[in-house]
Amino acid sequence: MAGDARLRITFNPPDCRRAMELDPWASDRIKDYARLRDQFGLGTLTPDAGGLPEGALFRRSIVFAHRGWDLFGRALADGKPTALMTGLMPSGKMHLGHKMLLDQVIAYQRLGTDVFIAVADLEAAATRNLPLDECRDFAVTEYLRHYVALGLEPCQFYFQSERVQVLRLAHQLSHRVNWSKLEALYGFSGSTSLAHANAPLVQAGDILHPQLAEFGGPRPTLVPVGVDQDPHLRLTRDLVAAVRKVRCRQAKDGRIGAFATGNDGIAKLLKDAGKLCAKMGFKKQELNVDYGALYLDDAKAEDVEHIDAALAYVDASHGGFGFMAPSSSYHRLMLGLTGGKMSSSEPDSAIFLADSPSDAQRKVKRAQTTGGATVEEHRKTGGRPLECPVFELYAYHLMDDDTKLKEIHDGCADGSWFCGECKALAGDLLGGFLEGHQSRLVKADTKAFAV
Ligand code: TRP
């Protein structure tokens, strides 16, 4: 990782605990990422985490949290097979908030990860009332073309409504979910339609299907998403645990072990698990078939996710799905230029990738920033760059140079640099980016994606 860490701007939030909720379909501007991360038990993703690609989004902790990173990161760093799975709701024009996700996908693809991208047409139909055929055209002409122009190479780009393996899986997994769980996770109520209620199950199907034999088999799978999507990952991880015939966990009494469920063949299952664990170096084993347990007394808490992942192969060889729990990473949601979050439904809040440079510059000029109201006031108090949508444009997209970014940050904070100048420079850089992007867009060829 290049650069002097002292010059690096970091969005890494400090520790904190207070209660809040996350709604994947109605998340607003998130004011307190630390609270959110700590309350939901997300891990902090630091720039030095093993396996993380290069790039400003990672270096600056804009991708700031994770679940189960270590499993994916280690496999990627060791050159073992990995998959990446993410999705999009084709409900509005593509903007810079969406680009953040693609920048990550492309970075991982360049490191050799198998990429799967779901067009969430069923979810969009269920939650936004969009007809499937419109979603289809829009996803290809709008999103996929931009993805190619940004540098995405051929990968599995598919539609939820057309991939029978995903739908079958959603149905199979739905046996393990009851209404109380959906109520608790999503606040669903008696008036929620079944189509909407099914959306999280289809998403679980999306997330796990790359691990089916025909799509490459069990392997660590990263799901990079905006942090509002975390409830879906909690659900999917619980489902993996529920469908496993054998898995590794720490029991209530603190003992770590492989635990099997079901009646038939448990002894053989645990025996195979024991062999594999011994190969991994966990030799202090105690078998208790009546408890369905193989205790691993030399395993430590940090070994659990790795043992559990390895047991996926034993699970598969005994007729289970053989899923490893997905790893996930979470990025901050971009601030809108008009105050709230960046959203396609509010055109002035967002910079669209198809905006003309002059339109984009106009939006930046009008952006709500944090500087003082008058020259004197600004000199005295300065601005709050980490809360400013224009500073985010630099940090997330326009300014890769850490030293220059730090100058912008410090100039804003100490009141020596004014919003007008700052917006003018951001507008220029943005105009340059959009021109380059749009000239690549004209040539973008989506044929290799087989859609
Ligand atoms: N629900 C996601 C969104 O609203 C889209 C999505 C569908 C997705 N399937 C997925 C994201 C699988 C990650 C993984 O944008």
What does this structure look like?
By secondary structure, the protein is an alpha/beta fold. It has 17 helices and eleven strands. Strands 1-2-11-6-3-4-5 form a seven-stranded mixed beta sheet, with helices on both faces. Strands 7-8-10-9 form a four-stranded antiparallel beta sheet, covered by helices on one side. A hairpin with a 4-residue loop joins strand 9 and strand 10. Helix 7 packs across helix 9 and helix 11 packs across helix 12. The protein is globular. The model has no long low-confidence stretch (mean pLDDT 93). The site of tryptophan has 14 residues, from strand 3, helix 9 and strand 6.
Average the pLDDT over all residues and give the rounded result.
Answer: 93
The backbone outline, from C-alpha atoms, is globular
Strand line-up in the sheet with most strands: 1-2-11-6-3-4-5
The kinds of small molecule bound in this structure are:
tryptophan
From the N-terminal CA to the C-terminal CA, the straight-line distance is 37 Å
Rg calculated over all Cα atoms: 23 Å
Estimated helix fraction: 40-55%
